[in-house]
Amino acid sequence: MNESTYARALDTLVGAFATGHKLLLCGNGGSAADCAHILGELVKSFVKPRPPRADLVDAIGEPWAAHLQRGLPAIDLTCNNALIAAVINDIDGHSVYAQQVMAYGKPGDVILGISTSGNAENVRRALKTARAMGLKTIGLTGETGGKIRELCDILLNVDATETAQVQQLHLELYHKLCRDIEDALF
Q1: Containing domain of residue 137, as a range?
Q2: Is 90 left (phi over 0), alpha (psi -120 to 50) or beta?
Q3: What's the domain count of the chain?
């Protein structure tokens, strides 16, 4: 991955959020944990304060409202256990994220599929579904990009192949992305 690829990913995410679109996140194992981590950095403040609008605080009319934070819309597709179990039972285990993309995704939204190998079938199906629906697709992978490479409008592939190293590099990369998104929008 080079700086221009990173800049394209950042511009895509900032543009989506700035126009009222959302980010969908999916991955497995440690990458699922990364989805939750990214969501936490976006839905509330990460580094910069994001105070709510004064008119909203006034409309709520409660002292605690001043402590709320402006957030960015992101959905972690890995965390709804009941829905995931229903999709596994009723449809297909590899379609757990694709089904949610069908329900939540709209043209102009962005999906970030995280796979250290780039070969996670459920992430591949989510990206394929997202692309068919007009979402922008970003992959976060190890060195080769694996099978999802061809489905990504933007591939953020780090220079490692061993899972723990890939995940460590992913952490640094998505922290930088979240910080830069916050700087651009707040």
Answers
A1: 3-185
A2: alpha
A3: 1
Residue 114 forms beta bridges with which residues? 140
Give the chain's length. 186
Q: Which of 76, 64, 83, 82 is nearest to 33 (CA)?
A: 76
Q: What is the pLDDT of residues 76-116, one digit of tens each?
A: 999 999 999 999 999 999 999 999 999 999 999 999 999 99
pTM of the model: 0.96
- Pick the closest to residue 27 from 101, 100, 122 (CA basis): 122
Q: Which two tokens stand for residue 142?
A: 């190890």
* Residue 28 neighbours by CB under 8 Å, 6+ apart: 78, 115, 120, 122, 123
Torsions phi, psi for 6 (to 5 deg): -60, -45
Tell me the three state secondary structure of residue 85: helix
- What is the domain-level CATH number for residue 173? 3.40.50.10490
